[in-house]
Write a structure and sequence with these properties.
Helix content is 22%, strand content 23%. It is of the alpha/beta class. Strand 2, helix 2 and strand 3 form a beta-alpha-beta unit.
């Protein structure tokens, strides 16, 4: 699964991420004000089972241009 700037806290709650059963790649954007990287992607990343990857893009936002 590839998740682009997901809102993990609202979608998965405290335990939902630990139940994911497929390899997961999460993309986080450092300047995203809609789904802030730290609270929505980085903190939730530890709750995902392996295999997993987290990619951060410095200066990127939530909006496509």
């Amino acid at each position: 699964m590839i998740a682009f700037n997901p809102t993990t806290s609202l979608l998965f709650g405290d335990t939902g991420l630990s139940k994911v059963e497929v390899p997961t790649l999460i993309l986080a954007a450092s300047a995203d004000k809609t789904t802030p990287a730290l609270t929505e992607q980085v903190l939730g990343f530890d709750k995902l089972p392996n295999p997993k990857s987290l990619v951060g893009i410095v200066g990127a936002t939530h909006r496509a241009r």
